[in-house]
Structures are given as C-alpha cells and as structure tokens.
Amino acid sequence: xxxxxxxxxxxxxxxxxxxxxxxxxxxxxxxxxxxxxxxxxxxxxxxxxxxxxxxxxxxxxxxxxxxxxxxxxxxxxxxxxxxxxxxxxxxxxxxxxxxxxxxxxxxxxxxxxxxxxxxxxxxxxxxxxxxxxxxxxxxxxxxxxxxxxxxxxxxxxxxxxxxxxxxxxxxxxxxxxxxxxxxxxxxxxxxxxxxxxxxxxxxxxxxxxxxx
Length: 212
Fold this sequence. Notes:
Radius of gyration: 18 Å
Number of strands: 9
Order of helices and strands: HHEHEEHEEHEHEEE
Largest sheet: 5 strands, antiparallel
C-alpha cells in the first residue's frame, strides 16, 4: 500500500520543519512469492547468524536510482513524469540468483533475466530525474537485493552466508511496478524501514527503447 508523503517524511507542522528532508530512491520489488522463496532459502542463515542485521522481507528491493537526501518539496514534482515513464514500459522478466557480499559487510543476492531491459530502465529513470533538476549520486547499477549487514568485527558471517547462497536459483517473476520509496525513520543503530511514497504499474505499450 502506498503511503502519503507525510508518512515517510515525518509528522506535520512544526516537527516537519525540523525534518524537512527524506531519503529517496527508485526501485523494483519482487512479488511476495519470489521473496518467500528466497526467505525459505535463508532460514538456515537466519538461525546460524542471528547477530547479522537482517533486512525485513518487505524492504527487499532492486534500486534503480538512489537519490539520497532530498527536500520534501523536491519529491512531488517527480511524480507525474515518473508515472508517464512507467506507463510507456512493459514489465521485466527477472530472477533472483546466487549470493555475494560487498566488502565482507553487506550480504546480497543477485538478479538475472532481462538485464538489458533493467539497465535501460535505470538509464531512463536517471535521465528523467536529472531533467527534473534533481541532483543525485550517479552510481553504477549493480542489480541485487541487499539482505543483511554484518555487525562490527563479525564480517566472517557475511562471507559464509554469501557462500551458502551460491547455489540458489529462484523462479522467474515479472517486475511490473516502478516504486518511489522514501524513509526518515529507523535511522541509527537499527534497520531503516522504507515505505512507498508512490508506485506506478508498467503498461503494455512500447518497452521504452524508442523513448530513450
């Protein structure tokens, strides 16, 4: 369910004036059955490495563009252009596969399938955000789901958990919505919890190659 912008940017009135920014990104999300399939694969790791900071299953996503900390006033002008972009796309056929880690600290599972379409979508999303005058860190796209982070001094758990996912091959699924996600809750030592600001269905029109 989509949340009103106020739900992810803090309470109204004077309190919002003290927290007038929100952390924003654009993403795809696997369907529930694909996430549940991966969660079943992770059950031994949940039991073996309880000290890892495991992300909530509802927060699993494939980031297309991380916009960083934005003024809340910068978010609404993005919505109509993003809705238009989504309406011109076809769903993408993807799979979750394998596992790995970033710097022995961040555990992830990889994404396969229509990677050409995924990269094209990310390129178009980033171009649209730039055209809207919103600066953001233009990081290379490395399609993955972040699953957990190690605690300080316990990096071996991340490496071992990644090795345990090496043979995982999830079923094929359809990414059919573009999600605009924000959060300013859960900051600090605990996990950050994300909420949709808005999400838009991909339609059955051109896949976007002609729009690029």
